[in-house]
Design a protein that fits this description.
The complex is a heterodimer.
Chain A (H helix, E strand, L loop, with lengths): L10 H21 L2 H26 L7 H18 L4 H23 L4 H21 L1 H4 L14 E3 L3 E3 L4 H24 L1 H11 L1 H6 L4 H27 L9 H14 L5 H16 L4 H18 L4 H9 L4
Antiparallel strand pairs in A: 1-2
Helix pairs in contact in A: 1-7, 2-7, 2-8, 2-10, 2-11, 2-12, 3-4, 3-5, 3-10, 4-10, 7-8, 7-10, 8-10, 11-12
Chain B lengths: L1 H32 L6 H18 L4 H22 L8 H23 L13 E4 L2 E4 H23 L1 H11 L1 H6 L4 H23 L11 H14 L4 H21 L8 H12 L9
Antiparallel strand pairs in B: 1-2
The chains are: A mainly alpha, B mainly alpha.
Amino acid sequence: MTTSARRPLSRVVLVLSAVIIGLVFIALPLAASEYVVYVMVLAFLFAALTASYDLLLGYTGQLSFAQGAFYGVGAYTSALLTLRTGMPFWVALPVTGVFVFLLAAGVGYPALKLRGAYFAVTTFFFAHFVYLVFLNSVTLTGGPLGLGGIRPPEAIHLPGVGTVSFASLRAYYYLVGVFFFAVILFLHFLVRSRLGRLFVSIREDEVLAESIGVNTAACKVLSFSISAALAGLAGGLFAHFFRLLHPSTFAWMTSEMVVIMTLVGGTGTLFGPVLGAGIVTFILELMRFAPELRFIVWAVALIAVLVFEPRGLAGIAARLFRRPA
Amino acid sequence: MLENIAFQVVNGLIMGAIYALMALGLNLIWSITDVPEFSQGGIYVIAAYGGYFVTVSARLPSFVGLFAAMATGAVLAFSFEKLLYRRMRGMTLNLLLTAIALFFLLANVAIWLWTPKAKFLPPYVAGEVGFLGLQIGRQRLLVLVLSALLFLLVNLFVWRTKLGKAIRAASQDRETAQLMGINIDTVNSVVFGLGGALSGTAAALISPLYAVYPAMGDLPLLKALVVVILGGLGSVNGVLVAGSILGVVESLGAAFISSAYQHGFAFFILILVLLLRPRGLFGRM
């Protein structure tokens, strides 16, 4: 590995790419079809899921299969809060975030005493248990019939723009997009903070970290809960976008998909998992013409990536852009 | 009441035997080769279809179907190890991901080729037997007897044969075993083949009791994972005990607490045992 070959991005390039990304983000719904915008909303939600999951897997080194479950808990919590208590969406969403954070802390505290594969299998089961609750608490969640009648977020008045109604697809696109960028920025600064470095110390060597005085138990629970709370927020946004929740949306497949998207993109990079989520979402959408084949093609492609480029897409990108010195 | 409890216990033991068969393969593979073999869930499905086509479509006797399922499982697991896992030795995350991808792949191949519709096949042996006042289907009894027999055979193989000794050596210390002249590739192939065959057997034995369909592997895989962790990685007896406990608790829980949460009880047992005894009931560290 040569570090000298990798020049630091100059400030100009950074600002320029941010401006380009911003312009594309703003212009896309004006130029693209409804369908593309719809897929973009899903991609943003999944990217927020994978990026927040990367905090746990990529930066703290804990493999969990429960991200899809927290996504589901967030979706149902936010939907039920608005439906049953009449709470406005803008209040229900933060409440949902706090709720999922506390739930994850409650589950994570005992579960994170376990290490490695033991922890992973426990989260696998937690996710399945959550799915059973969605499916069987018929009076609360509607069970297999699903939970319908969820309202879109209330219109808000923005100075200079006017009243924005989030009932339209394009307005929702901007809402989810802003959420996504906020999550990325938050995580970007979090992983570079003191706390983020403590997380990385656990990933690198948990025993060593503990011996030099890092409170590894608290750090792991915190990382798990932050990552879950962000997933819960994404779930809340999904609920008021799709407006119909069904337990199968949050079955174990969803959690596996998050893990796979993150790993395909390359862990511990934030950028990789986002790329992974985007690419996987679009590939699956592109293959809608052959629904029975899409998971087959997808699984074969995934195995091929794993055999030929184990570092994921970030590894392929590094190979393309990093010239040997 | 008492009869109902006894009935549920027997039913639980039968389900537990199926979990344990699959968990035995998983445990051997995981503890010896370090591969978290999630693809056994998919192998289970394909093997069940193999058994179905041999007995129903080709109209061959049931035991031929059983061997077909066994062989299907063994060949699949053997080739996955040879073609894929071998290239990623030591990369736990990639191994896990590949295994999950294979599970996806096999379950979806089953949907694509044979539709999600359930297929039914006749029991190997029809009728019931009376036992201490309980009526137990002969097929269920067969599951118990065959599983017990297989456990015995695997135990004999691991403890009484030269290859079994090599496997035990490899599971203790792979590098030292290699230095002693043990061919680690052979050990891996044998262990994977054995694991696949056990999953295939479990699938073939259970399919006459329920049905054959593409999602049939999801729950047994989950339960087998729990059994492995509960029993302790690397413990054959642990699998037997944990499988029985899980099966009986589920069966009693479904009958007397809530049938909707039948598959959720495993979660609580898992959390409880891991908090009290993180290495599982019989696990070595």
